Amino acid sequence: MTAETPRDLDAAAEAALARLVALLRKAGSAREAAWAISSEAIAALGLEDCIVYLLDEGGTLLTQVAAYGPKLKAPKVIEHPIALRVGQGVVGACAATRQVQRIDDTRTDPRYVVDDEPRLSELALPLMHRDELLGVLDSEHSQAGFYSDRHVRVLQQMALLLAERLAQLRTTGRPG
Length: 176
Fold this sequence. Notes:
This protein is of the alpha+beta class.
C-alpha cells in the first residue's frame, strides 16, 4: 500500500486507515478487500451503512459485494444485494462521471434509488486505479445533510487504498 494518509485527518480516522491498510494487505480476494473497507468506514466515521459495488468485466454493471449496516444479514452476507447499471442512480452516476456524488437530500435528487430503505443523504465515491474504474464506495444516512468534507476526505483515502489493492489482486490473478 503506497497511498499516503492526508495530514488533516483526526486520530480516529488515521487509526482506521492504519487498520484498513493491514486488513487490505491480508485480503486474498476482491471480496475480502471490499469487506475490510466497509467495516472500517463504519467504525471510523459513525456511518449507518457502507456498501462496496464492483464493476463487472464488461464495464456496464455495478454489483454490491460487501456491506455493513442494515443490509448485513450475517457475517459477510448481504441481504438482497442489488446491481445497478453504470449511469443508474447516484452510484451509477458516480461510476459514469468518475466523480464523487454527495447528495444532501435524496428527496430532491431524481437519480436516487432506494435500496433496502429510503435514506436522506448519500455519498458515492469512485474506486479508481490510474484511469480505470473498478467500482464505487457508497454510503447512505437517514439524516439530511449528514456527510461533511471530513467524510469525503476519509472515504476518498479509503477508496484509494481499496482500488490500489483491487488492482494488485487483479494482477496476481486473484480477482474474486
